[in-house]
Write a structure and sequence with these properties.
The structure is a homodimer. With about 350 residues, the first copy, chain A, is α+β, with helices and mostly antiparallel strands. Chain A has two domains: about 130 residues, Creatine Amidinohydrolase, Chain A, domain 1 (3-Layer(aba) Sandwich); about 210 residues, Creatinase/methionine aminopeptidase superfamily (Creatine Amidinohydrolase, Alpha-Beta Complex). Helix content of chain A is about 35%, strand content about 25%. The first copy, chain A, contains ten helices and 18 strands. Chain A has a six-stranded mixed sheet. In chain A, strands 7-8-11 form a three-stranded antiparallel sheet, with helices on both faces. In chain A, strand 2 and strand 3 form a beta hairpin. The longest helix of chain A has 24 residues. Chain A is elongated and about 70 Å long. The mean pLDDT of chain A is about 95. At the A-B interface, helix 8 of A face helix 8 of B.
Chain lengths: ~350, ~350
């Protein structure tokens, strides 16, 4: 049985669950995007439900027992097997067949759970945090994909860096970086690319617009790729003939990031990394302008546990992949953020992104 | 008050709701992606909640009363106003201030609704279909964006068509089409691009891989852009030195699409469009190989009401935007699908995509 299912089962035991139904997180367990729900018992084969249209893809994943369903009796292809029932009915049958009394699930509509509960008595508990937490420590196989995703985003950033000059549009730079990442095997962006210049750079969550880059501007480029489901995330801030205030801001943020990264290792509380970076930003005089956390885990989702901010209770563990990304956004000067992906190791760390 | 809020309120009146809370569908009402929840009373100003980091973007939208919140007391910028409370507390206050007894919402976690209910007694009903249904008929302003999105995807398809030749990879074609769309102003893809050649073409929901195109293959290209939130969707099937069986399949699917489109007008049941296309595919001998519906509405989401399939109860109305996309997927021959976006008009239709 695979590493991911093993991790889930140890969480299930800890919480007294007989069955876990993953609606959102099927790709993590199965390696395919084609699943609609994965039903995992404490022992025995998990069952993957998929829509009829996606059964060929679903069968390429790691789960053997794939059940295709359809609410509509369209004719069958030769050899095709389809359950002409609603998904909730098949889930209810699994709850019965696995003899479950205590069922956990990640996230589902109330009405879907109500239908299952009506025909199959058990305790049903929504546990949206269970899988993301189990996922925060990566397997060697997952680390290969995360490394590749980090390499791809590094290539995209290199391309963006070549294009920073007055007169180009933000969206042109985003398009070029995305194109390079796509040709390198990215499935798409892990979030809408940010290329934010001038006043836009002071918005931590800007997009890319048709605005042209100009002299005396900071340009925040924050992009991400997805490689076989694994997201990457990287930010650089470029400066076009910067003012003194802009250079000062940029230097402070870069040094703050280095101070944060230097704290990363197995066993360190996440808030200590945040503190190291934040302290540096504050001492440089920007304490009011660093309004977000210092970083987050990254994997199947772009934001996963652990969370690096002043009130975080998370502790870094070996084989977590995190970002370290302090920033400061100063009205009339502009914004700066500097972000890399870092692999937490026993006694230290390894940088996954580079430029 | 804007068209979208008016449509929502007429649905709220019909269902006896005093307040509707949109968690998923905020962009439709506000024009910004920055909202976390929009609270709409039957009369008076709606309230948009947003995270502190996104307040500048949120204020660029159509809602005047924007309230930023944060669970963490980071220092305030000069002039900044932030509610240092959880989002659910602010929603509960709105329910109280609007004097609501009956609250609808689109989709939210059970625990979030439970917290609100615990401090503010009212009836809370999950109504995930309400906004998508209200959204199916587009305003003139929305149609401008849908037209532009359709133009952009047509450009992307033109670029893909120029690249269809043996030796190129699927992913290369996807990357080029996406690049052209992005530079034309697309925010990103409306779904993962499909470039599916040879055996891949027989999977209705394939992606783009590093597989090279070869002679005697069908190549299904199904792509979409997003323009200011509005999705587009278009499919063409190309053939490289096709076999007779491949040419026959492709011709049948193209003619089936024309037969379906010819039925599109205001007042026609959606299933009649499906029937016209499906009947054509069946009579050509491919009845077992057309396993999906003939089309769907498209707008803020890539799949919206109405739904065009044999058991659909939807009726086409003027200013709906739909796809018409019959297909057939024949083992050893390959797959073919042909899809355009069509605007439903009084007495007829208008094609929005073109190649």
């Amino acid at each position: 049985m695979n590493y991911q299912i093993q991790r889930l089962r140890s969480e299930m035991r800890r919480r007294g669950l007989d069955v876990f139904v993953a609606f959102q997180d099927t790709r993590y367990f199965t390696g395919t995007t084609a699943g609609k729900a994965l039903i995992v018992p404490l022992s025995g084969e998990p069952v993957l439900l998929c829509s009829r249209l996606e059964q060929d893809q679903a069968k390429k994943g790691r789960v053997k027992d794939v059940r295709a369903y359809s609410g509509w009796k369209a004719p069958l292809r030769p050899g095709e097997r389809v359950h002409f029932r609603d998904a909730w009915m098949i889930i209810a049958d699994c709850v019965r067949d696995f003899g479950a009394h205590s069922v956990g699930y990640d996230r589902a509509s109330k009405s879907l759970i109500r239908k299952i509960r009506n025909v199959r008595h058990a305790s049903y508990s929504e546990m949206p945090e269970l899988v993301p937490e189990a996922r925060s420590v990566k397997s060697p196989e997952e680390l290969k994909l995360a490394r590749r995703s980090a390499e791809i985003v590094s290539k995209g950033m290199k391309r963006a860096s070549e294009l920073i000059e007055a007169g180009r549009t933000e969206i042109e730079i985003a398009a070029e970086a995305e194109y390079v990442m796509r040709k390198a095997g990215s499935e798409g962006v892990s979030f809408p690319s940010i290329v934010a210049s001038g006043a836009n750079s002071a918005l931590p969550h800007a997009f890319a617009t048709f605005k042209k880059l100009r002299s005396h501007e900071l340009v925040v480029v924050d992009i991400g790729a997805v490689y076989e489901g694994y997201s990457s995330d990287m930010t650089r801030t470029f400066a076009i003939e910067p003012t003194k205030a802009q250079s000062r801001l940029l230097e402070a943020v870069k040094k703050a990031q280095a101070a944060g990264i230097a704290r990363v290792k197995d066993g360190v509380p996440a808030r200590e990394v945040d503190f190291a970076a934040r302290n540096f930003v504050s001492r440089a005089g920007y304490s009011k302008f660093f309004s977000h956390g210092t970083g987050h885990g990254v994997g199947i989702e772009i934001h996963e546990p652990p969370s690096l901010w002043p009130e975080s209770k998370d502790v870094l563990k070996a084989n977590m992949v995190i970002t370290v990304e302090p920033g400061a956004y100063v009205p009339k000067v502009g914004g700066a953020r500097w972000e890399d992906m870092v692999l937490v190791k026993r006694g230290g760390r390894e940088m996954l992104t580079y430029l």
